[in-house]
Amino acid sequence: MSGAAAPAALAEPSERVGRAWTASLSLVNGAIWAGWYGPIQILLALQAAELAPAGTAKESVLAWVTGAGAAVSMVANPLFGALSDRTTSRLGRRTPWIVAGVAGGAVALVLLAGARSVAAMAVGWCGVQLTLNAAFAAVTAALPDRVPPGQRGAVGGWLGAAQILGVVAGTGLATAGGGLAGGYRACAAFAVLGALPYVLLHRDLVLPAGHRPAAGPVAVLRGLWISPRRHPDLAWAWLTRFLINLGNALALLYLLYYLRDVLRRPDPGGGVLVLTALNGVTLLGTVVVGGIWSDRTGRRKPFVLGAGVIMAAATGLLAGWQTWTGALCAAALLGVGFGVFTSVDLALMTEVLPAAADRAKDLGVINIANSLPQVAAPVLAAPLVHHLGGYRVLYAVAAAIGLVGALLVRRIRGVA
């Protein structure tokens, strides 16, 4: 096998992808994010307030549930990525996991709607994270599978646009669903419908059985470790993404409570929707443009650095200007920075991957930098809010963490 040419599934792509493929992949990506963020932005917070036992703060319940789900996500994404890398189905490596993950996620969302205790709520949310991460690992790997390096910033931009539109759609569906059950079911239906065009209209690359990586449990688990000494650029890129995402997670975790308890908004759920929509508008103004601009210049690091600084400044506004106007300005500025970061950092990550045979697994390890902040943020946020100065300190710490992450991108050597 060593002398044979690599199959298409493992080759570096050279043919540019078309608009229909990009649109379909973006749609399923947005559908997955809607399945996550309808609950995260609205439904889980309301459910935590409803189910919190007497004497237990709703913030603590929300932290326990989201933290447990994020812990599942950290394991599920690289694990399902590794399984996807080893899939030799005639439907391809990625499509079977997109189908199974989205269908399972829809079922888990419906079951979560019926939770009547904190324990059941936690189990339901962990099920959502487990299944949707199987789909997300496959969707993310499709970028380096099919898109040539010189187009990845642009396609990453469209995936980023779909991500924020999915967040807006999920928040809107959760708000308009007429209650917890209706909100969860609406998010479940949207997740399934959004996956259909990609699954039905586009053929996936098939991995020949002779090129399948070692598939035993020991080989799979051993492969989840990527040595930072052997791959320092990947390590620095991971740390950059982790810290920027941690700052963002700290800023968003208690947004509903911030609007209700600090700004005294009469309709905090509606306020979250307004801020999310405004954030989405400004993000859409930069996410694709930033990716295309990065492709044309052939540079990634300056865009990630600038985006991280802008995001840190936006979070700092929430600490220093605690008014509804301040929140609107912060949401708009955060969208500008996160738009560029979303598209260009994804392209940067695909350019530090060690091996084509392990793309989904390696991206799954990288995506831990997305999910681990969801575990760390509640652990940090709850004591900051309750014991160490409240929301002003919370947002100041979030801004500082994000800024450090942005500065560390300069340590990457193999990418301009």
Plain-language structure description:
The chain is mainly α. It has helices spanning 19-51, 58-85, 95-113, 118-146, 152-176, 180-201, 217-223, 232-253, 255-262, 268-284, 287-297, 301-320, 324-350, 359-386, 391-408. Helix 3 (95-113) runs antiparallel to helix 6 and helix 5 runs antiparallel to helix 6 (180-201). The longest helix is centred in the first third of the chain and has 33 residues, at 19-51. The radius of gyration is 20 Å and the shape is globular. The mean pLDDT is 90.
Strand content: under 5%
Low-confidence stretches: none
Alpha-beta classification: mainly alpha
Total E-strand runs: 0
N-to-C CA distance? 34 Å
Query: What composes the largest sheet?
Result: none
Helical amount: over 70%
Mean residue pLDDT: 90
Short description:
It is built from 15 helices and no strands. It is mostly helical and 416 residues long.
Characteristic terms for this protein:
416 residues; mainly alpha; 0% strand
Spell out the blueprint of helices and strands:
Elements: H1 19-51, H2 58-85, H3 95-113, H4 118-146, H5 152-176, H6 180-201, H7 217-223, H8 232-253, H9 255-262, H10 268-284, H11 287-297, H12 301-320, H13 324-350, H14 359-386, H15 391-408
Helix pairs in contact: 1-2, 1-4, 1-5, 1-6, 2-4, 2-14, 3-4, 3-6, 4-14, 5-6, 5-10, 5-11, 5-13, 8-12, 8-14, 8-15, 9-10, 10-13, 11-13, 12-13, 12-15
